[in-house]
Write a structure and sequence with these properties.
homodimer, alpha/beta, Arc Repressor Mutant, subunit A, 2 domains, six-stranded parallel beta sheet, three-stranded antiparallel beta sheet, 9 helices, elongated, disordered N terminus, DNA-binding
Amino acid sequence: MSPCGYAPKRPGAGTISSVIGHRIPEATVNRLPVYLRALAEASSSSPTISSELLAEKAGVNAAQVRKDLSHLGSYGTRGVGYEVGYLMHQISRRLGVDSELRVAIVGAGNLGQALATYGGFASRGFQVVATFDSDPGKVGHRVGTTSVRPASTMSDVLLELKVDIGVVTTPASAAQSTADVLVAGGVSCILNFAPTTVVVPEYVALRQVDLGVELQILSFYRQSEAAPVAAGE
Amino acid sequence: MSPCGYAPKRPGAGTISSVIGHRIPEATVNRLPVYLRALAEASSSSPTISSELLAEKAGVNAAQVRKDLSHLGSYGTRGVGYEVGYLMHQISRRLGVDSELRVAIVGAGNLGQALATYGGFASRGFQVVATFDSDPGKVGHRVGTTSVRPASTMSDVLLELKVDIGVVTTPASAAQSTADVLVAGGVSCILNFAPTTVVVPEYVALRQVDLGVELQILSFYRQSEAAPVAAGE
DNA sequence: GCTTGTGAAATCTTTCACAGCA
DNA sequence: TGCTGTGAAAGATTTCACAAGC
């Protein structure tokens, strides 16, 4: 999404391409983190889990779970199920979440501050190593575990801190130039929350999460309940 | 999706089904808001736009734009292109964004406050009519254009204010019960930001935006650049 | 000339259904 | 017996390519 938009498509669409041994379909990749979360929840109940139970927790079809997991290798046991801990390890490994990825947040407004202190990043092995803002009034303020740096220092700091992922929470007007600086600074993924789309080179993974867009999509699906719009116009 | 998508599918999967005259594919619906935004940007440059230019701005293929728009009807002119203003009107109409949808945000923490003041909602015809929190210390505080109400009053207030869309920014532990109250309160869409999945009845449109999950997906795509993981284990 | 709208082809994704193994 | 892993079928989406219309 994606959103987030995601997408989704997802949702939210992004630049795609990947090679890890035998290529894993994009739709599968989008579900792996969902499985990971479902497994984390299930891990306290039982050491193993069936495709059917995992499917229920993840909100998908059991055949889909089996097909998805088969792309990672044969980690299940027929007649028994999947070993929860081992499966989580395998999924994490494929998602590259083993390796402590380093995140920078650009824009220390409400949304930027919220994300910097959001527990979901740290608990999944992502480390927020820097926050930036162009407003001198915000520079120096403590946000989460970092203190806000001036936007003008981005190019240097990104390289110095070896930032992997950039999160854009600037106003729409600054989003594209921010994305450009992030790319020049060597990040390989960008998560864009600004209410405008940005474009980046092919080799940078991009995910655009526009909250207004998410609501618009929802409001369309809502109409499955409502009376159909008159056909003519 | 961001997503979704959520989304992808995407980005963020959700409960789907819709009937408006002749059914519009889900993948198309997920792109309509993106077109809408691209059109808004383009509207100042020229009164008409070609599928090719629109495709470039939206980051998709020109044939896709034409196929998508053809689901709405024949609103283009051969040899010329699409009339920007009219096309925006048609897309908005189909997305139901004409009709001032009413949003409630549950959880007035950092993220909830950020969303309540986020410009992206209001500028797209969504009106934040209520915020809720279970913390008595937060109740009564002004957030955006509303003041925070006690979570215990949700059931009544949702009905009274005729809320259409619920946004969940509670901690993971409260997300499912919050979603249940929202459904009972008559909302027809839920946008879930809590770092856990929730389940809702078929007839409620659902979009799950987990920021950690988004980063995990991105970090996988990132590996298209990195060296392949060793095959064995 | 240029650009839409759309069948048909190609591709991707999901689901089925069952062989194979514990 | 129970559940995985996987070919094959069904379905959805994307892309191609070109006729039709301005």
